[in-house]
Each structure stands twice: as structure tokens, then as C-alpha cells.
């Protein structure tokens, strides 16, 4: 048991470093392969019905988690291979480096006034209609996307990895990917994507709160981050994006939220940290740096938590053995 926890910790650190160095490949990414498989299952199961969407979610996310669990079990007597599997899984599910790269690409285009190039790159970060956005609105969209995806693409995955090992990592990324694919409120997916969206809300809950807390600790304005989280985090329609975006807004001293065009719809979201100024292009780089600090802290917290849990477990076993004797 001790080696298992230490092996996970080593694999998590190696996988995080792998994401920093290699990021996501342009082709052949495991998450993209899962997306293609989920799309094939959707074509067979789709009906405008919650039950069919629930079946789709169970088949895709459950199948991925079971496959990961079987693979991890097959390597239970090979600690080196199990650590390598953990490292590969962490690298595959994390997206922090790619997140920063895409945010900086939009920010660079905005900095030189190339709105067309910025609009072309923005869909790599979010599903908003870029043609309806001017420069300041795109800067806001990027900062909001960096905040939300820090939770989805980094912290949440590390939390579930610490809790469930490789199956936890794979299950979280599968659920998050399904939500991105079918969890939005378009006519096609309003019912079919209901299960994926609700499961993503549940899976994302602990990571979002840890992200918000770490943004308070790592941000340049701790009091502002905590104040915005408390005041505005619950106003957002998403139970997980709200605390994260509010804490980032307060930490960076900017105002987020408001009207946006998404998937052919216009939404009027609550304003977060309303007394602050709107985001500007330089705030994109500040958001990326804050995201990086939050990710590093999350790695430390989750690895330390896993090791501490292993220590408590070993002590409880020793205590039980002494009582038995």
C-alpha cells in the first residue's frame, strides 16, 4: 500500500512535467480518440430522451473507467509500470499548458490589433461566437475560459486522480469531455445531454472549490478574490464555473460575466466582481500566470493528500494488528 501511494505521487509529478514539456499533441491525443468513440456511440444511441442520454454517458464514461481500472489492476505487481501508467494518464488528462498556449495566441493577436486572427483562435478556448465579439469582449472571454478550464483541465483531474488513481483520472476526463460534446442546451442535446451535464457538475464540484481556494492563495489580491468568491460565486448559472471565475476576477481585479453569445444563443450572466474594471489584453497573461500557479499548488496539495492518506491507512492497519494480538 505504501508503494502504491508513493508510485502515484511519482507518476503524478512526472505526468505534470510531461504536460509542461510536451503539452497536447496536434494529432493522436487519447482524449480525441475517446471523443471519436463517444461520437460513434452517440450515433447509435441518440434519441431526444434523457434515458438514451444516460445510457450514452454510462457506456462511454463507465467503459473508460472500467478499462482503466482493469489496466491498473493488471500492473499491480509491477510498480514501475504502474507508475509509468499513472504518468501517462496524468499527461493525457491535463491540459494546462495547451490552455495557456491558446490563451496567449489570442492575446498576442489582440495586442497587435489583429481581430480576425484572434477570432480564428478563440474557438480553441470556448464555444462563443467570435464574430460577435470585439477586442475587449474577447479579452474577457479568454480570461473567463482560462479560469474555468484551470478547474476542468487541471485541478479537477488532479483531485480525482488522488482519490481514484488512474481510473479516477480517466473517468473525470471522460465525463468532462462528454459534457463538452453533448452537455449544452441546444435543441439536439437539451434532453440527451442532461445526464452528462449533471454528472459533470457533480464530478467538477471538489476541483472547482479547490481551484477557487488556490486562486485566493496564489492571486495578487487575496482579499479581493475571497470577497468576490463569497459575494458572486453562487450567482453564476454553473455551480462550478461561478466560484472559479469569481475568485479569478477578484484576484486579478477585473470584472467578468455579463452578456455573451454562445451556441447561437444570447445569454445574460450575472456580473462577477462588479466594482472592478473590464479585462484588458494584458490581463490575459496575468490570468495564464495565475492559472499556472494554481495548477502547481493543486499538484502539491493532491500529492500530499494522497501520501497523507496512505500514512493514515498504514497506521490504522498497525493499530488493528496490535489490537488483534
Walk me through the structure.
With 325 residues, this protein is mainly alpha-helical. The chain is 74% helix and 5% strand. It has eleven helices and two strands. The protein has a two-stranded antiparallel sheet with strand order 1-2. A hairpin with a 2-residue loop joins β1 and β2. α1 crosses α4, α5 runs antiparallel to α7 and α7 runs parallel beside α11. The longest helix has 48 residues. The chain is globular. It starts with a helix and ends with a helix.
Q: What is the number of helices?
A: 11
Q: What low-confidence regions span 5 or more consecutive residues with pLDDT below 50?
A: none
Strand order of the largest sheet: 1-2
- Tally the beta strands: 2
Round the mean pLDDT to the nearest integer and report it.
93
The shape is globular
> Distance N terminus to C terminus?
22 Å
Compute the CA-based radius of gyration: 20 Å
Order of helices and strands: HHHHHHHHHHEEH
Keywords:
5% strand; 74% helix; single chain; mainly alpha; two-stranded antiparallel sheet; 325 residues; globular
Secondary structure elements and pairings:
Blueprint: H1 2-22, H2 30-45, H3 50-74, H4 79-93, H5 96-111, H6 115-121, H7 135-182, H8 194-218, H9 222-232, H10 241-252, E1 256-262, E2 265-272, H11 281-324
Antiparallel strand pairs: 1-2
Helix pairs in contact: 1-4, 1-11, 2-3, 2-7, 3-7, 4-7, 5-6, 5-7, 5-11, 7-8, 7-10, 7-11, 8-9, 8-10, 8-11, 9-10
